[in-house]
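Here is one record:
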Amino acid sequence: MTPKWFLLPCVVLTGLLDVSVFSQQYNQTTTQQGALTLESGTAPGTGNVIISYNGRLWSICDDGWNLAAARVVCRSLGYPHALGHTSQSYFGRPRHEIGLDNVQCRGGESSVLDCRHEPFGTHNCDQREAAGVFCAPRSTRVSSRTSRRPPTTTTTPTIQSTSQTTHRSLQGKILMNFSENSVYQEMMQLDHVASNRHKPATYQIRIRNGRTTNEGRVEISFNGVEWGVICSTHWTMLEARVACRQAGLGYGKSALKASFFGGETMVKLASGVHCDGEEERLSDCYHDQSGAAATTCSRRDFVAGVVCATELPDLVPNATLLASSTYLQDQSMYYMQCAMEENCAAQSAFNIKRTRHDWHIFKRRLLRFSSSIWNFGTADFRPDLRKQDWEWHLCHMHYHSMRVFATYDIIDRQGNRVAEGHKASFCLEDVQCISGVVKKFACKGFGDQGITVGCADDYLHDIDCQWVDITDVKPGNYVFKVNINPEFLVAELDYNNNAVHCDLAYSGVSVRVTNCVLGRG
């Protein structure tokens, strides 16, 4: 077997990594049932997952191991969140016997033992199938933007190509400049607020002043007596999801930022709440500010509110179809004119069109593929825009019902996006359904758009914008990511299955897509 790793494109290596320290294995046992450690990692927060059970240390089989399980592990170990998960003993064969198999987490559990799994000791795995994680490093950021400099040395992973996949090996300490890394650039843009981000003391919440009991402004109290509201700075569907869960009202359906439910005169007790959507309570999320004395809000009417629901859609892309349908096409720009009106080309194509009178004879290399998106939820998926707000595209002669329905990214092994595409939904409809389900949505004649529960909408490889322009991408090994509903514009039961991450090998003349797995974008 060849090690596989599924690393989200947000890894920033900082500081001096001493491999001799992080590769040490844990010899001690712990008496705490279910306690976790990481073994054989190459940096803090990385390694095979080791769990204590009945006074012994055990490793975990990678069957069913996913990003949700990695979130549980990283949170249990005190790291802010998970960057990725690994399988097939990516960090080497563990010293300890396999103890857990078929671990299936939702992501919000407090312990791996709270996830579904086989009885302890029951498995069909060997030492080549250990599960591991990449956790985000604990924050060490400073408040001054000028003092954030790329480290002078680091241990950097290099990519080694094999016939089946790619893996990392450490080649020692070398000089590295992170200034060209898109993730590092994004970090450099953060202001001093990020350094103050924290988890506050536990507080109570209640939903008040709604038209029904499942909606209203979010009120919080640190002592159960004095109640205030949350400033809606950075209030998104993810924070609403956690608020509804904590209030026992199901799932977040809408996140309201204005004082639709009142509360302008109430004291602001928190601001800048940042959740990943899987926390059990809002106080488990990071906050920029908390407490009456420390919280400021730029406007009085910035009051966080929610609409909760017990039934929502759940979009799931077909990973198998994506892997099997991908191919290359060299397309003349003459045939891409409508697509370019929707920005479905790389920047270099627009530069050619702007500077060359014969631009139409130039060709672009397109990575084409098909997408099939199923709704496995409990409610129909409807566009975020009202029908009267749909945008008419004259060249393609159709309406766009969502500004961004899907994004397509090619990402190198350092986390840089090297090519991208997108899909503005022009026709959300029921193309295929499971047996017994009647199609409800059809685009013909300005019909209603959506995806019925138990149905799928298909975007086949031969339609405009169902591609990524990779003309400027060098041959190599990459991650290909297709992310549905990437901006969480429509509420869903689960966002952890909205994206497909694949290994992509590009030779310059052919492409191979393998190891496609569902995850979070």
